[in-house]
Amino acid sequence: MTSDIAAYVDAPQRHALLAIQQVIMLAELAVNRVLDNVDVPKPAPHS
Questions:
Q1: Beta-carbon count within 10 A of 6 CB
Q2: Is 33 helix (H, G, I), strand (E, B) or coil?
Q3: Cα 20 from Cα 22, distance rounded (Å)
Q4: Is residue 2 within 8 Å of 24, Cβ to Cβ?
Q5: How far apart are the first and last CA of the chain?
Q6: DSSP letter (8 states) at residue 44
Q7: Within the chain, what is the greatest distance between any pair of CA atoms?
């Protein structure tokens, strides 16, 4: 979505939008790594 918006703005704003996109992607990678390393207990089945 950010890339689509970046196509319609001038260079300074485009660079800012693409930088924000990179930060978002890095945050997603960090969250995925944490989720890979966390052992989430399964909830007990309801009777």
A1: 17
A2: helix
A3: 5
A4: yes
A5: 44
A6: P
A7: 60
Cβ neighbors of 39 (< 8 A, separation 6 or more) are none
Question: Full-prediction pTM beyond 0.85?
Answer: no
Query: Can you say whether the dihedral through the CA atoms of 21, 23, 29, 34 is positive or negative?
Result: negative
Question: Which of 36, 4, 6, 31 is closest to 18 using CA atoms?
Answer: 6
DSSP structure string for 1-28: -HHHHHTTS-HHHHHHHHHHHHHHHHHH
For the stretch 1-47, pLDDT in tens is: 777 888 888 999 999 999 999 999 999 999 999 999 998 788 888 86
d(CA 19, CA 29): 15
